[in-house]
């Protein structure tokens, strides 16, 4: 079996989305093609999230992104203190974690292994 290399999502504003994922999710810029309005962001394991700016409407319900963090409650407090608004704080829903939306309306779930095992 192969391994997941990248995921691509449509966005309304590539630069704004790029900056949001770098600032709030700690991703690193892997590449950028400004003329094509495409950016690749990489996580700590080398998986790339490709952001492609498109014209017209996007369907943010088509994808849910889940980020494993060191401590979901600490990450929630950090982001909330920096003005990031959440759909819900850490709680038991699909397991245990917090949920927010990116600038395009995609659902972003935060979780950690410890609390998922203890509270999920």
Describe the largest sheet.
4 strands, mixed
Q: What's the gyration radius in Å?
A: 15 Å
Low-confidence stretches: none
Task: List SSEs in N-to-C order.
Answer: EHEEEEHEEEH
Descriptive notes:
The protein has 120 residues and is α/β, with parallel strands linked by helices. It has 2 domains: 1-58, 2,3-Dihydroxybiphenyl 1,2-Dioxygenase, domain 1; 60-120, 2,3-Dihydroxybiphenyl 1,2-Dioxygenase, domain 1. 24% of the residues lie in helices and 38% in strands. The chain has 3 helices and 8 strands; from the N terminus they run βαββββαβββα. The chain has helices at 14-25, 72-81, 113-119, and strands at residues 6-11, 28-33, 38-42, 48-53, 64-68, 86-92, 96-101, 107-111. Strands 1-4-3-2 form a 4-stranded mixed sheet, with helices on one face. Strand 3 (38-42) and strand 4 (48-53) form a beta hairpin. The mean pLDDT is 94.
Write a brief caption for the model.
This protein has helices at 14-25, 72-81, 113-119, and strands at 6-11, 28-33, 38-42, 48-53, 64-68, 86-92, 96-101, 107-111.
Observed structural traits:
24% helix; four-stranded mixed sheet; 3 helices; 120 residues; 2,3-Dihydroxybiphenyl 1,2-Dioxygenase, domain 1; globular; alpha/beta
